[in-house]
Write the structure tokens for this entry.
Amino acid sequence: MPASRLLFLALLLFTSPSLLLAQEDEDRPPDLIGLLGPEAGTLQGISAGLGVVAHRQAAGLQLGLLATVSEGDAYGLNLGGLGMVVDGRAAGINVGGLGMVVSGGADGINLGGLGAVADGGMRGVNVGGLGLVADGGLRGINLGGLATVAEDGILGISAAGLAIVGEHGITGLSAAGLAIVGEGGVAGVSVAGLAIVGEGGVRGVNVAGLGIVGDGGVTGVSVAGLGLVAEERMAGVGISAIHVRSDRIRGLSVASWVRADQDLRGLSVAGYNQVRGPQRGLAIGLYNSADELHGVQVGLLNRARNNKPPFRWLPLINVHIE
């Protein structure tokens, strides 16, 4: 077969998607660009080549061995060997071998080999090999190899090798190797290797290797390796090897040192129970101290500041009931 005929067949193989399967519109007809693949204002059906470019909209199957690009929206199956870039919205199955970038948000299955980024947020199954980032929030199953980050918050099942960060809060099942941080709060079941931090509070079942911090309080069952700190209120079960501290404590507290800066109600078990206000309930420890006791202290040494001498300091047990 002559070499010229072989070359023609090769060109036809690469350009046939553009000639046969890329539908034109009146503003921009499809361009024949040889090995690069189809380019048109609107692509519909099956479009394949080294690069696939839609200037207005792409719908159907878009397969770019190097990249798939839409300056508008993209619907259907959008695959880019190296990258997939959509300036508008993307809906369907969106995959970029190295990266997936969508300006207007992505719905469906969204995968980026290294990173997946959506300015308008993502909904569905969202995976970034290294990072998953959404300015408009994440909804669904959200997995980032190193980090999962959403400015407008995270809802669903989320995991990251290092950190999960939701500026407007995190709700659902969350697991991170190092930290979970929700500026708007953390709610649900949260597990972190080092720390869980909720500026708007921490609610639910929370387990952290080092510390749990809730600026707006901690509610539920919380277990921290070193410290559990709730700035306003801790309610439920709080367990830490070293320290549990809050302004107001309600429920069960277990630590080497339990400190309530305003009042404590419930059961507290610690080496040192320190209540800088009213204690209502039972405190069990080596040393128990309450500025105002309305309950029972059991320990080696017990101090109830509102008891009159000689009952203010007592060994083994101290009681004040009115």
